[in-house]
Amino acid sequence: MIVFSRIGAGLAALAAIALSAAFIQAPAAAHPTIDIAVSNWKFVPAKITIPLGEPTTLRLTSTQGVHGIQSDDLGIPQTTIANGKTVTVTFTPKKAGTFIVHCSVFCGSGHADMTLTIVVTDPPAGN
Ligand SMILES: [Cu+2]
After folding, report:
1. Looking at the domain assignment, is residue 127 inside a domain?
2. How far, in Å, is the centroid of ligand 1 from the Cα of 50?
3. Do 2 and 45 fall within a single domain?
4. Are 47 and 103 found together in one domain?
5. How remote is the CA of residue 113 from the centroid of ligand 1, in Å?
6. Distance 89 CA to ligand 1 centre (A)
7. Which residues place a Cβ less than 5 A from the ion ligand 1?
8. How much distance in Å is there from the Cα of 43 to the middle of ligand 1?
9. Ligand 1 centre distance from Cα of residue 15 (Å)
């Protein structure tokens, strides 16, 4: 009987995790999400513009090869994008400017030139 009740508790915990995951996904749509296709050896689009101080979500899908992004300046943690997978990363830029983000996972001959340019714009006065 003890074993059965433990299994029951385990299932309840799993159900709770599944429910909270469903709730976490809903608000993610509230701020801008930018889709980026990743392949050998490019990010498409190669340049994006985002507002200063606003949470931004990048949804990166690799259609070829394993790649990554990471930026200390922008607060993007090391994020690996496996072949055929989609990963999302959310960050809030704290500095305006143009940031060249290199692919952060060695991916072959085009790796050194594989960059994503992120332009962070200060919102116009009055906004
Ligand atoms: Cu690379």
Report:
1. no
2. 23
3. no
4. yes
5. 8
6. 17
7. 103, 107, 111
8. 10
9. 38
Q: Do 65 and 20 share a structural domain?
A: no
64 occurs within a structural domain: yes
- Please give the Cα distance from 117 to 127 (Å, whole number): 25
Residue where the block lists tokens 């003890």: 2
CA of 90 to the centre of ligand 1 (A): 20
One digit per residue, pLDDT tens: the chain, 127 residues? Answer: 555 556 556 556 656 555 555 555 555 446 789 999 999 999 999 999 999 999 999 999 999 999 999 999 999 999 999 999 999 999 999 999 999 999 999 999 999 999 999 999 997 555 5
Residue span of the structural domain in which 92 resides: 35-121
b/e string for 4-42 if b means 16 or more Cβ within 10 A? eeeeeeeeeeeeeeeeeeeeeeeeeeeeeeeebebbbbb
Within this chain, do residues 51 and 10 fall inside the same structural domain, yes or no? Answer: no
Determine if the pTM surpasses 0.85: no
What's the total number of domains in the chain? 2
